[in-house]
Amino acid sequence: MNFIDNHRKLRGFEKHIRVEKVSRRSILKGLGVTGGFVLAAPVMSRQAFAYETGAGKMPHGVVVDPRVFVSVAPDGIVTIVGHRSEMGTGVRTSLPLIVAEEMEADWSRVKVQQAHGDEVKFGNQDTDGSRSTRHYLMPMRQIGASARTMLEQAAAKRWGVPATEVKAVNHEVVHSASGRKLGFGELAADAAKESVPSIEGLKLKDPKDFRYLGKGQVGIVDLHDITTGKAHYGADVRLPGMKYAVIARPPVTGGKLVKFEPDEALKVPGVEKVMQVRGWPWPSKFQPLGGVAVIARNTGAAIKGRDALKLTWDDGPNGKYESVAYRKELEEASRKPGLVLRQEGDADAALKGADKVIVGEYYIPHLAHVSMEPPVAVADVKGDKAEIWAPVQSPGGTREDVAKTLGIPEANVTVNVTLLGGGFGRKSKCDFTLEAALLSKELGAPVKVQWTREDDIHNGFLHTVSVERIEAGLDKSGKVIAWRHRSVAPSIASTFAAGTVHQAPFEIGMGLVDMPFEIANISCENPEAAAHTRIGWFRSVSNIPRAFAVQSMVGEIAQATGRDQKDMLLELIGSPRIVKPNVKDLWNYGEPQESYPIDTARLRKVVELVAEKGEWGRKVPKGHGLGIAVHRSFVSYIATIVEVAVDDKGKLTVPRVDTAIDCGTYVNPERIASQIEGAAIMGLSLAKYGEITFKDGKVQQKNFDDFQVVRMDDSPVLTNVYIVPPGPDTPPSGVGEPGVPPFAPALINAIFAATGKRIRALPIGKQLEA
Amino acid sequence: MIKVKINGQEQSWDGDPDLPLLWFLRDEAGLTGTKYGCGQALCGACTVIVDKEAVRACITSVNDVAGREVTTIEGLHPNGDHPVQKAWRQVNVPQCGFCQAGQIMQAAALLMENPKPSHDQIREAMSGNICRCGCYQRIENAVHLASTGV
Questions:
Q1: Is B73 helix (H, G, I), strand (E, B) or coil?
Q2: pLDDT score of A292
């Protein structure tokens, strides 16, 4: 007997949580459209309703019901459902840990069960936007507290004492007056009969009694399996009778298959079939690109068979996409006025009247996610039912899209979520799952579609490409009196809507219009740019180019005025205050401004903390330099100092990185550290090597030899992470993504300090060798 | 018919002798601990130990290992308690974990050859193994810990 006996309805929480059914989450998310209702979530402290989050606005909102998330077996094993996707952030451990904390479960007797995709049952499951802890800290505490209360009530009834006299302590309920105790397992059956308590009556634990939250002493639940090869990723699913498939897709976005000759492929040992895969017209959202699939008895044979295919493509309207020419287009657009998104004072006049104008034009190319596990999915479609096994960041969205693609009811689709071998935003798009579903339907057998690394790089949803042009006007005293920032980049919205030329609210809200500096005259503009390939979310998204441009410009201003970078930065941030940019419907990572304002006191604090702990201003050897940058993203505040060393041949190494993060109330500081360590590597990868280029509409890179990422021998020697202790009621904020944006500009500022060379275009590549 | 010993068990293959060992292990033998990451020996996710040497299973054919002994992550230690595995857990190395089998096999091979590698030797030996999550600092610390006793 367990708590999961009626999961159909929310109970007791309807007052605070309303569920909105949204059919097209991708458009909703993608275009920054908001709707629905607000979840009022109580705070970390015990009762008050001190902050709200945007959780209730997500598709299907939040479900707070212990019977959905918790079960207790008669042997005392507590099973807690993890409903978000694990791609390396530790969320499959952190969210259940919150429940265990509140219900007084002993973590060593807790099992975590991965939820399948079902948002009516579990609430929103989109694991993206650095939202999981932010949106679920409080709901998970409530779920744990409800389960604890039900166990306590069951024990009190058994003993015939008032519930106020009993207390759950470490996996048992205790009646201290009589010295009686009952284990959770012994109470499971009775507790399941208790009604779920109302939210008003719930008593949350006093944070001073926490055993797990904020401590960082619990390893991730998959640690043993990962180290022994037992961890189960999407690629590891094997079903009886399963076929293995790889697909040749159009090399140019929007291209179409003209003809294919399968004969040579069919001669490859192990190849069983060659078949066409349906493609959708561009812009194709998350739908498959189409192409030709080779079906075989193993993946190796399928790949060899695909190599033997003779294929003719019509490249379509993007066949001329070429990166050198496109960069010039973006640069030219950035030199002319664009759609004005934020205007305060008169930036034009102030720039004209300035004593000195510093201009920086920054270029950041396309990037590919290259998660270590390329996209892969298994589908088994039988009649009007489909079962999927896949490493998806959006189990609910995947379920919707599989149903729509196959033309079957959503209720007939089961999406089993495996571990993700990295995600970084790529696996928020379920195209690879849809391919598997289409093939399985046609073959009448289970199919695994494996993307090769070349497929991943050639047919991805790339990070955008952008030119960010900033003009800063200074008066005679060196004070910045004017700031004009033009951002030109193809939008993610172009993947959903033809003819898109402006960036979406969620893109301009990532470091462009929310720029926090205290400057009298500000203009933020967005000239037009059309997309010629699929653009998608990449870890930290538009914050990458924005932080790079804004924080490089701070370094340039310091350089021009002979001031210390950190002092310049603090001067620009200005007084501790809440920044309220003059922007219509400012997008704030989907969060209400009241709970998550742009707070320069917190921004200053991470700068000051990293400067202190990271020993800003310390003497470094010849050829070394220090650089600093700060950026608010995903409603967290992060500052980074990079020490760089550049030798006389221009070889760049990073001896040390220091990062301070203020992510509000947190759950697992050990995983926060690992995310920030990893963000430094990803930041260094994109700064040093990251570039996808196009010629004749085709991506020119193919694998890790020409799309390089940082390896151990050029990774930072030492990365230190400092976490700002939260105030008692500071809402939790993002961790997975915000570590990335400040790294590149801190590195570039450090390179200037070391060499006197100012790099404005990424990647650094061979620019230091000249 | 090709015969190969995998984790102490004799296995045979009468299909394409050029089939990469990686796909034989994963799709034919069901040993999915060894991962595909690039197919070109660029990332090290598929690292296994053949006799006493770390090799990339994605560019090694089944024929290449005929009559030899292959050890995969599943066979490194019966209980998963090889010093490298223990060190990995102690340091909380993994994030997503997908590359870690390859990293662990590479580290185990390194320690067989050089039981006390220096900081630079670890960084050099492990540089064929990519971790996109960026766990390098912890990998280095874990190899060091494994070499000094867990």
A1: helix
A2: 98
Q: Report pLDDT digits (tens) over B42-78.
A: 999 999 999 999 999 999 999 999 999 999 999 999 9
Instruction: Name residue, tokens 């929480």.
Output: A13
Dihedral angle sign, alpha carbons of residues A476, A477, A482, A483: positive
Q: Is A516 in CB contact (< 8 Å) with chain B?
A: no
CA-to-CA separations, A11 to A47, A332, A368, in angstroms, rounded: 19, 58, 44
Q: How far apart are CA B66 and CA A709, in angstroms?
A: 34
Is A421 close to B100, i.e. CB distance below 8 A? no
In this structure, the number of other CB atoms found within 10 A of the CB of residue A388 comes to 29
Beta bridge partners of A388: A379, A415
- Inter-chain touch B40–A704, beta carbons under 8 Å: yes
Taking only residues 443 to 502 of chain A, the set having a beta carbon closer than 8 angstroms to any beta carbon of chain B reads: 450, 452-454
* Å between A590 CA and nearest CA of chain B: 26
Residue numbers in B near A710 (CB within 8 A):
134, 136
For B27, counting Cβ atoms within 10 Å of its Cβ (0-12 exposed, 13-18 middle, 19+ buried), the class is: buried
Angle between helices A431-443 and A395-406 (to 10 degrees): 40
Question: Given a cut of 80, is residue A48 above it in pLDDT?
Answer: no
Question: In which element (H, E) is residue A397 found?
Answer: helix A395-406
Residue B88 with chain A: CB contacts under 8 Å: 227
CA A206 to chain centre: 31
CB A182 within 8 A of CB A155: yes
Q: How many CA atoms lie within 13 A of A742 on its CB side?
A: 30
Please give the full DSSP string across A459-496, using - where no structure is assigned.
Answer: SS-BB--EEEEEEEEE-TTS-EEEEEEEEE---GGGGT
The total of other beta-carbon atoms located within 10 Å of residue A619's CB is: 7
At residue B21, φ and ψ (nearest 5 deg) are -50, -40
Question: Do A298 and B13 meet the contact criterion of CB atoms below 8 Å apart?
Answer: no
Distance, in angstroms, between A762 CA and closest chain B CA?
19
Residues in chain B within 8 Å Cβ distance of A424 = 132
Q: How far is CA A666 from CA A96, A138, A371, in A?
A: 14, 11, 26
Contact A703 B42 (CB under 8 A): yes
Burial of A183 per CB tally in 10 Å (0-12, 13-18, 19+)? middle
Q: What does the radius of gyration of chain A's CA atoms come to, in whole angstroms?
A: 27
pTM here is 0.94
Q: Which of residues 295-354 of A touch B (CB under 8 A)?
A: 297-301, 303-304
Query: What are the tens digits of pLDDT across the range A521-566?
Result: 999 999 999 999 999 999 999 999 999 999 999 999 999 999 999 9
CB contact residues (below 8 A), chain A span 700-719, against chain B: 703-705, 709-713, 715-716, 718-719
- Strand pairing category for B47-50 and B69-71: antiparallel
Residues in contact with A584: Cβ distance below 8 Å, sequence separation at least 6, in sequence order: none
